[in-house]
Amino acid sequence: MTNKTLLKNGVVLTLDKKIGNFHQADVLIEGTKILAVAPNLTAEGAQVIDASDMIVMPGFVDTHRHIWEGTLRNIATDLPLEGEAGYRSVVLNTLAPVYRPEDAYVGNLVGLYSALDAGITTILDWSHIQATREHGDAIVKALQESGIRAVFAYGYPAWKEPDANQDMWVRDIAKQYFSSKDQLLTFALAPLGPEVTSLEVAKANWQLARELDARITVHVGVGAAGRQGKLAAMGKSGLLKDDTTYVHCTTLSDEEIKMIADTGGTISISAPTEMMMGHGLPPIQKFIDAGLRPSLSVDAETNMTNDMFTQMRTVNSLQKSVIFEKKLARKGGLAAFLSARDVIEFATIEGARANGLLNKAGTLTPGKQADLILLRTDRPNILPVNDPVSAVTWGMDTSNVDSVFVAGKALKRGGKLLNVDLDVLMQKAYASRDYIIEKSDFKLPAI
Ligand SMILES: [Zn+2]
Predict the structure, then answer these.
(1) Cα(249) to centroid of ligand 1, in Å?
(2) Separation of CA 332 and ligand 1 centre (Å)
(3) pTM (global) more than 0.90
(4) N or C: which end of the chain has fewer CB atoms below 10 A?
(5) 58: which residues sit within 8 A by CB, 6+ positions away?
(6) 64 alpha carbon to ligand 1 midpoint, in Å?
(7) What does the pLDDT read at residue 85?
(8) Which residues are found with C-beta within 5 Å of the ion, ligand 1?
(9) 119: helix, coil or strand?
(10) What confidence tens digit (pLDDT) does each residue in 82-140 have?
């Protein structure tokens, strides 16, 4: 009995430029890692999986999702971010405050299994539901149970002042669950940031993250608040470093975008929600011009679907449409179009980089963790496959996700999730949803 698995005869997109991509090759997994990628591999005693009607590629990486909102799916699609009946008011100030630890747990389970189902193998949980110490335990339990690779980004509640013990809880949780970096879950801090809190609070949060050797993920450049130069003030205080991912960045100044680039920061954009909620038009070209290659994120399932196919297509279409508009207006100095290859890298390599996991994930490189997906090419929505990269980027959807492996372990095979009872999950989701709605006195939209 060996612990080897051999994926035979797939179209293999390693996305590793040194190794290249293959119209037909094999991927050999040993334990948690990728051992080899090449045509015609053999491995005695290995479990062999026929990948002949599949594209084999790295799992997708989501760099910012408020996963606890899983049970609130599609509840805020017609709401802007701000305003009396906006997302902040309804989701963060009305619904979030009634969440018990078990509601955070169930919301996370729903979101995590949907991510795995959609071929996402690494996700950053931007978890600003931490009303008590027990909420943190509940979220970690859900992350562990799902089997996904995740960054638990501990966030402060947005609807109230932090608890007097909040920073102690952060230290406790970091110590209890994240003393090793050699595990599926890693730790980050998700402060509300200088556009929401005072500069002093933001500075204290940054110091705490660095004391704990945790990466930082922060919303900046969000709507009108993003135009106040708060990030520039942080930068002038010397706080911007390469351990930070800046989420949205839609209304940052050119100077602030340059500060991020100069200090080695990473970007996470959630183009569909930014466009529908009023964050500002995602300035994709400004990032590219500054030398920043963005990662992609679903953000909030209250508003947006859970997959990276939607993210890739939105970013590619938006960047192209801005250039085409300039061309129609007969403006010069047009930028180059992003390619399908660019955006598939945003959804994998750049995601792994922004989550601090590029040494483990993002490409099918021998020595890295075996986080990979098999995408069916024999479905009517995609056959015949003429260009595999464009097929993934422009042609496929979640119905093509046949298999999902995280650290060599199969979590989805033959189009079915393996480690969850969906009937039980559904019961838990409705029970928690009903409690949240009743307790908060929120009315679900009429139909
Ligand atoms: Zn967000």
Answers:
(1) 11
(2) 35
(3) yes
(4) C
(5) 13, 14, 15, 121, 348, 349, 352, 361, 362, 363, 364, 371, 372, 373
(6) 6
(7) 87
(8) 299
(9) coil
(10) 888 899 999 999 999 999 999 999 999 999 999 999 999 999 999 999 999 999 999 99
